[in-house]
Design a protein that fits this description.
The protein is about 35% helix and about 15% strand. It is of the alpha/beta class and about 250 residues long. The chain has one domain: Aldolase class I (TIM Barrel, Alpha-Beta Barrel). The longest helix is centred in the last third of the chain and has 19 residues. The structure holds phosphoenolpyruvate.
């Protein structure tokens, strides 16, 4: 089994304007030298995906999207963007099941599963997000909740996925689980993926997400089983995002 190439993905959420797209080229100038060892991905709002792809031309920065429709076929879904459309313009990845979508749009594991399946059918790599709330952690239910989300959200039959472990309480704040806690959940996610994919699960990248920044990235990347990060706020500025990427041991 080839080593898993680390993936560091930036989720711009609903931030930025056209002028923000200049961050992509700026990022490339900072991380080009390590690009053979670490994949850098930016997921802008869908309205900017095409422009981001143009802006990333001539660079190795990969562009993805933050969500896609659960409908696999072209159909009457006003306001939605299909995985096939994202693939058509050149996106390579799509985030599905982010906790903000689960919370604000009531997306269930079943919907996330359909979105991930639609992404795979379109040739995109879904980044499937899972993670417990603070209440679930306090109740000692992390393993139960996360393994159930993985079982229900990850489609069968195709291991070309990325899973992001994002404790909901760590997103957009200042606290993260401890390094042993992160390693424990990553091992649990991989074991759960092995139930479905057997040894093929060893090829799946499992990212950590939640308050990753230039100061804590290197320590988090040192946690056993962490294959990169899904980064929100700190991905908006090239300098911060580059500092995270350059903090990965594979970039040394
Ligand atoms: C995220 O939204 O996926 C995320 C991890 O956000 P932040 O890095 O801002 O906590």
């Amino acid at each position: 089994m080839a080593a898993r190439k680390p993936l560091i993905a930036g989720n711009w959420k609903m931030f930025g304007r056209q002028e923000s797209l200049s961050e992509i080229k700026a990022l490339w100038t900072l991380v080009e030298s390590v690009s053979a060892n670490v994949d850098a991905l930016i997921c802008p709002p869908s309205v900017y995906v095409s422009q981001a792809l143009w802006g990333a031309r001539g660079t190795g920065v990969v562009i993805g999207a933050q969500d896609c429709s659960a409908a696999a076929e072209d159909s009457a879904r006003t306001g939605e963007v299909s995985a096939a459309m994202l693939a058509d313009v050149g996106a390579k990845y799509v985030i599905v099941g982010h906790s903000e979508r689960r919370a604000f749009h009531a997306e269930t594991d079943e919907v996330v599963h359909r979105k991930a399946a639609a992404a795979l059918a379109a040739g995109l790599t879904p980044i499937i997000c899972v993670g417990e709330t603070q209440a679930e952690r306090t109740a000692g239910r992390v393993a139960e909740v996360v393994s159930a989300q993985v079982r229900a959200s990850v489609p069968e039959g195709n291991s070309a996925v990325v899973v992001a472990y994002e404790p909901v309480w760590a997103i957009g704040g200042n606290s993260t689980p401890t390094i042993p806690e992160i390693a424990e959940v990553h091992a649990l996610v991989r074991d759960t993926l092995k139930e479905r994919f057997g040894d093929e699960a060893n090829g799946i990248r499992i990212l950590y997400g939640g308050s990753v920044g230039p100061k804590n990235a290197a320590e988090i990347f040192g946690a056993e089983g962490v294959d990169g990060a899904l980064v929100g706020r700190a991905s908006l500025k090239a300098a911060d995002f580059a500092a995270i990427i350059l903090g990965h041991p594979a970039a040394k």
